[in-house]
TrEMBL record:
Family label: Belongs to the eukaryotic mitochondrial porin (TC 1.B.8.1) family.
Lineage: Eukaryota, Viridiplantae, Streptophyta, Embryophyta, Tracheophyta
InterPro entries the UniProt entry points to: Porin_dom_sf, Porin_Euk, Porin_Euk/Tom40
Keyword line: Ion transport, Membrane, Porin, Transmembrane, Transmembrane beta strand, Transport
Organism field: Arabidopsis arenosa (Sand rock-cress)
Gene3D superfamilies per the UniProt record, alphabetical: Porin
Domain of life: Eukaryota
Annotated protein name in UniProt: Mitochondrial outer membrane protein porin 4
Amino acid sequence: MGSSPAPFAEIGKKAKDLLNKDYIFDHKFTLTMLSATGTEFVATGLKKDDFFFGDISTLYKGQNTIVDLKIDSHSSVSTKVTVKNLMPSAKAVISFKIPDHKSGKLDVQYVHPHATLNSSIGLNPTPLLDLSATIGSQNVCLGGEVSFDTASSSLTKYNAGIGFNNQGVSAALILEDKGESLRATYVHTVNPTTSFGAELIRRFSNYNNSFTVGSSHSLDQFTVVKTRFSNNGKAGMVVQREWRPKSLITLSAEYDSKAVTSSPRLGLALALKP
């Protein structure tokens, strides 16, 4: 299965991670603990403006089953059960949230040496149906996705894209928003410590273009610095330090040149894993 194409959601993901991952402008704390049986307990707290959100989750990994249970500060209980090897090259995921009785969903993924198929259906009387597929290989793949709302008998989403990965270069071209916009992404891994990326979005409805460029550089084996610049005048930076094995402290900052009267946005995230 090594040559199988990535799922459609993975097309352009390298650029998305380079330009957006770890940029958090709030205060976040995560504590991960492992039990002797291999069960993982994670406590997360997020302070956004004057509001605080938190959740506690447990993750159990069996030979063919993964159970993820999460309880948040709003007393909602989310459960996700993943069954691998349900049939050759396929896995299924059942998820639901309590007390939202309409949140149940069944996802099935099938992986073929030259194709990947993902399907999802809501477990309610008028479900939302999602289907995505890619064909090709790890180097070049072509795919698309559609969503159908049975309640309104209409397509709520249809996108298509092509991805390319080879020798440190990753590029993608995605037609999204029901054909209303075109997104092009590019990432170049110069060496094991340095990467550069860019994203350009063309919106056909108003002929507006937006772009973002960014970089990631490892100062040493424990410290990573990321930067990004957008045509809307915003500049951001992330400094992430692994101050002990698997424990990270992340500092984020963003300056908006068009909001000269406002202070730069700052964020702090601390992840502890004993």
